[in-house]
Design a protein that fits this description.
Layout lengths: L6 H22 L34 H15 L1 H11 L4 H27 L5 H14 L12 H25 L3 H31 L1 H13 L11 H10 L5 H15 L10 H39 L1
Helix pairs in contact: 1-4, 1-7, 2-4, 2-5, 2-6, 2-9, 3-4, 4-7, 6-7, 6-8, 6-10, 7-8, 8-11
Length: 315
């Protein structure tokens, strides 16, 4: 166990773990095809091809489902930035390069399937969607970790939490769509995200064994500064509030379904290999989580009051 390692040395030490987890992933990942998840017989031409353009009444999705689908899809659309960032954090050589390319190819299917579904079923305005995509991809993503550090430790810590958060969001979006076709598609996408999360979680777990203090410092920095990679998209704040308000992805889920399960998997609060520096970092983490727990309760109380007011107005 080393107290600290250079990024290059750490990547070299972790490469056997990456190779083993790449092999594991390839043995578990199931081949699937976006076209099998789209109801093509519902499609019809838009005005440029002699049909009619989109109108709100054509969508069978409710307001929350539309906001969730657009948020999730635009997040997937920034794949070029994610590929660049992960390539910079890892390496283009060996197992690292093979994983990055495989991950990118699998992630690309998500955007294909979701966009085809939304366009064919006229679930959202395709013109507004394309304009938003151009904005998102045009501005890209440079620091999704919120830490200013693109090194491997911050990178694998961030994507561990982010992939799990995305899985939760996709799965809950499928449910709120009230459409078995959308639910099936998003469940398939969520299964991919879970396998991706496991790869990154295992890499980060191995880093904890090699450089406990440094890895924990990166993990805590990511948790304290966490934000979803779509934070710069149009209407992100409005849509995020709507999603949180209706249980697609809220602070409770972020704490109970994302942060805490991963920390337990890494055995963060029972490890005995931290130095006094690591112990201080762990104490800071405990303090942050305690505060976050209180924030969750306040958020839920505020949300319950707001929903009660809405119900009373409708009644």
């Amino acid at each position: 166990m080393a107290k600290s390692m250079t990024p290059t040395a750490l990547l070299a030490a972790l490469e056997p773990v990456a190779e083993a987890n790449l092999d594991r992933h390839l043995s578990l990942a199931k081949e699937w095809h976006p076209h099998d998840y789209v109801p093509w017989d519902e499609g019809r031409n838009f005005a440029a091809m002699g049909g009619i353009d989109w109108a709100p009444g054509q969508s069978r999705l409710g307001e929350v489902a539309r906001a969730a689908m657009v948020t999730n899809l635009l997040t997937e659309d920034n794949l070029p930035s994610y590929h660049r960032l992960i390539s910079e954090s890892f390496s283009r050589d060996g197992a690292w390069g093979t994983w990055v390319d495989r991950w990118t190819a699998e992630e690309n299917r998500h955007g294909i399937a979701m966009r085809d579904y939304l366009v064919v079923t006229r679930g959202v305005d395709p013109v507004a969607l394309e304009r938003a995509r151009m904005i998102c991809v045009g501005q890209g993503v440079d620091d999704p970790t919120g830490t200013g550090d693109h090194a491997v430790l911050h990178g694998v810590a961030y994507v561990t939490f982010q992939e799990l958060a995305t899985r939760v969001s996709h799965r809950n979006t499928g449910k709120v769509c009230q459409d078995p076709v959308a639910d099936r598609m998003l469940a398939r996408i969520a299964a991919d995200e879970n396998l991706h999360m496991v790869f990154y979680r295992n890499i980060c777990g191995a880093a904890l064994d090699l450089v406990p203090d440094d890895a924990l410092e990166a993990i805590v920095a990511v948790i304290e500064n966490f934000r979803m990679p779509g934070a710069g998209m149009p209407d992100f704040r409005r849509n995020s509030v709507l999603l949180a308000k209706h249980g697609i992805y809220d602070l409770r889920q972020h704490l109970d379904e994302v942060i805490l399960p991963v920390l337990r998997k890494w055995n963060i609060f029972d490890r005995t290999d931290f130095t006094p520096r690591g112990e201080r970092i762990r104490e800071n983490l405990a303090t942050f989580l305690e505060k976050l727990g209180k924030d969750v309760v306040r958020f839920e109380e505020h949300r319950d009051r707001a929903l009660a007011r809405e119900t009373a107005r409708r009644g």
